[in-house]
Amino acid sequence: MVLAEATTPMTRRRRSSSTEEGAATRGIRYALAGLPRFLLMLTRLLRDPRVPSVEKVILGAAVAYALNPLDLIPDFIPLWGRLDDLLLISLAIERLLNKSGPELIRAHWDGPEEELVALTTRIDELARRLPGPIRRRLRSAVETR
């Protein structure tokens, strides 16, 4: 009877939730492990003459914006102040990757493809964390350039 009680629907949901949390934690760890390779790939892309100059400038402007204390959401506001900076950088990186194309990305990526997918997925998830109006405003700022 104890075994039957242990597998009630409520317990099954908890186990499922804990399994999902475990998978999310593994995904984050996997993405963090690939971060040095990702940064190396970005550096290589920024040095590659085949990548459009405007994409390099947009990424540089996003980094400069993140370093500037005066921005859309002031950095002194806990969590949200830094999140808009990260989102803008992630949008600029996403744009750079899209404009570079898969062949060029693969030429500069020296890790497993699953690691690259995990990293880009985390970048997309970061973009979904901000409220819609702020996300749209930042996306339009990146897309109009």
Structure description:
With 145 residues, this protein is mostly helical. The chain has one domain. 79% of the residues lie in helices and 0% in strands. The chain has seven helices and no strands. Helix 4 packs across helix 6. The protein is globular and about 40 Å long. The N terminus is likely disordered.
N- and C-termini, Cα separation: 65 Å
List low-confidence stretches: 1-17
Domains (count): 1
Fraction of residues in β-strands: under 5%
Largest sheet: none
The secondary-structure element order is HHHHHHH
Number of helices: 7
Shape: globular
Report the structural category.
Answer: mainly alpha
Integer average pLDDT:
76
| Fraction of residues in helix | over 70%
Number of strands: 0
| Rounded Rg | 19 Å
SSE layout and pairings?
Layout: H1 2-6, H2 9-47, H3 53-67, H4 80-100, H5 102-108, H6 113-127, H7 132-143
Short description:
By secondary structure, the chain is mostly helical. The chain has helices at residues 2-6, 9-47, 53-67, 80-100, 102-108, 113-127, 132-143.
Characteristics:
disordered N terminus, mainly alpha, 0% strand, 145 residues
